[in-house]
Amino acid sequence: MVAGGLCLCGLIRLLCSLLIPALFLSGILCVCLVVLLWGIRLWIQQRKKQLTSAGKDGKQPLVVAFFHPYCNAGGGGERVLWCAIRTLQKKYRNVMCVVYTGDRDATGEEIVEGAFRRFNIKLTHPVKFVFLEKRYLVKASLYPHFTLLGQSLGSVFLGWEALLKCVPDIYIDSMGYAFTLPLFKYLGGCRVGCYVHYPTISTDMLSVVRNQDTRFNNAAFITNNPLLSKFKLVYYYFFAFMYGLVGSCSDVIMVNSSWTLNHILSLWRAGACTSVVYPPCDVQTFLDIPLEEENSTSEYSIVSVSQFRPEKDHPLQIRAFAKLLKEKRLGQQPLLKLILIGGCRNQQDEERVNNLKRLCEELGVSKDVTFRINIPFEELKRHLAEATIGLHTMWNEHFGIGVVECMAAGTVILAHNSGGPKLDIVVPYEGHITGFLAENEDNYAETMAYILSLSPEKRLEIRENARRSVHRFSDQHFEETFLLSVEPLFK
Length: 491
Description:
By secondary structure, this protein is of the alpha/beta class. It has 18 helices and 13 strands.
C-alpha cells in the first residue's frame, strides 16, 4: 500500500513538473500567434493605403466590397447583389462598390449588361470588379466528401486572395461564405456584414441526418448504415458550432425570410444585429402584365422558374406532371404543357438538364415539356403572362423569388409546403387565398388537377389576391429595409 501511494505521488509530481512548462510553452505560442496576426493586419492596412487612390474630388472613396464569386449566374441571389449595389449608389455619393468574382470568362461590362438584360437593373455608377483565380476552391465537385467543410475552408483561401487584391472599408458577404467574415474583420480591419440567403447548415439538416432520411445531401449508403449516420451527425454538429462562431463575427446580419431568421438565430445567436430584409423582386414589371380572364380553355401551360440545381427538385416537377398528364388523358382534357425556365451556371448544371430530358423520355412526356435556359427577361415575362400555374418544388426554399414573380405575373402558384413559401409568401392576404402548397408527387398532381378544374372566375380571384399580396416584396421595400440594416456599417 505504501509503495503504491509513493508511486502515485511520484506520478502526480511528474505531471505537475510537466504542466508548468507546457502552460508556459502554450502561452508563448499564443503570444507569437497574436503578434503574427497583428503583424499581418498592419501589413494589410499598409497595402490598403498603397492600393487606394483618391476620387475625382480628391477625397478617398469609401470602398464597399461584395463577395460574390458567381455574380454572373443570373439567379435570385444575383438580383439581391445588383439591387444592393444600385441602392448604395443612389444613397451615398462617395462610395465605390467592388465585386469579388470568379467569372473570368466575362468582362465587367458584360457582367453589368447581363444584370440589366436578366433583371432589368441599371446601375447609376461604374462598379469595380476584382477577378479571382481560385474560385475552383469553393466548387462542390472538388469535395466529394465533407463538402460543407471543404467549401468553407476553400472560401477562406479564396477570401484571402480577394483581400490581398483589394482591402475594403466595408465588406459584405452576399453569397453565403460566412467563413470569410472573421478574415476580413480581424485581418482586414473591415466593418463586415452579410446577407444570408440560406444557412450553410440548418437544424433541419441535422434532423435529416439524425432521422436517417435519404435526401439529395444525405446519400442512401449513409442512411442505411447507423455507424456512418452517427459519424455524419457528429461532423454536422461540429460544423454547426464552427459556423455559429464565424457568423457571430458579423456586425450586421441580414436574412431573406422568417425561415432563415429562425435558423440563423439558433446557430449564430446574434439577434441584436439580425434583421429580415426580403429580397427584391421586380414585382412592378410583372404587375404591368394585364390580368384578364382566360380566353382559351383548349391549352394550359405550367411554368417553373428556378436555377437548375439539385435542391430545386425538377425531377419532382416532371414526375408530378407526368402523373397529371396520365390522369388527364384518360378524361380527354385540354392540352397541357410544362415549361422549365432557369439558369445554368456551369457544366454540372448542363448535365443536370440533360438528365432531366432523359427523365422526360423515360416517362413519355418529352413532347409536353420545354426547357428554356438563360433566356432574356422579356421572354420570361411572356411565358409567365401566358401561364396558368406557376410551379415550385424545392423543400425548405429559403425564400422563393421565383414564387413571388409567378404570383405577381398572375399565375396560380403551387409551391412546396415548407420554408419561405409556407411562412412568408403563399399565405392568406386579408383573409383570402393566394395560392396552393404541396409536398409530394401525388399532392402536386392532385393540386394541379384541382386548379385546372376551377372556373376561370375563381382562378382570376386567386390571381388578384396573390397580386395584391406581393407589394411587400418590391424593389422599393428592399431598398428601405436594406439601407436601414446596413446603416451601422457606415457610421
